[in-house]
Write a structure and sequence with these properties.
The protein has one domain. The longest helix has 7 residues. The chain contains two helices and six strands; from the N terminus they run H-H-E-E-E-E-E-E. A four-stranded mixed sheet has the order 5-4-3-6. It is mainly beta. Strand 3 and strand 4 form a beta hairpin.
């Protein structure tokens, strides 16, 4: 748990079960402002579909939908590009989802919803943001 490198992390890609057990979202406080040592299980990584359906422009949902297979979503209007809380000087280009494409690749969505794709998990691109969600 935590942001620092883990011994042996270069030897294997994280699986869904790994993220469910040790992912940072599990360790967020109820208000989402503090990373705690013990799992709180209030938050989780969103699915690809949840990311697409939650894209907004000026705080209003833009009505994006995805068929679950194609490489892009359909949106009524283009969403805003949000600034991540942990790096206010950078705008994310893509959001990681909790969905695996396969054992070595994870799905991501670009901020406009125009790209739904995958890339190797080990890339860990800093321009790929992530958000945690919780049930209402």
């Amino acid at each position: 748990m935590g942001l620092e490198d883990k011994p042996g992390h270069q030897e294997a890609d994280a699986r869904v079960a790994d993220m469910e057990a040790t992912g940072l979202c599990r360790h967020l406080s109820e208000d989402g402002l503090t990373l705690l040592a013990e799992p709180q299980d209030s938050w989780r990584m969103p699915t690809t579909d949840e990311i697409i359906r939650s894209l907004v422009r000026h705080g209003e949902n833009v009505g994006c939908t995805w068929d679950g297979a194609s490489g892009s979503a359909d949106c009524r209007i283009a969403p805003d590009k949000e600034t991540p809380l942990w790096a206010p000087d950078l705008s994310p280009i893509y959001y990681w989802s909790s969905d695996e494409y396969d054992e070595r690749r994870a799905r991501y969505v670009n901020y406009s919803g125009s790209t739904v794709s995958h890339q190797p998990k080990l890339w860990g691109n800093p321009r790929h943001g992530y958000r945690c969600v919780r049930e209402p």
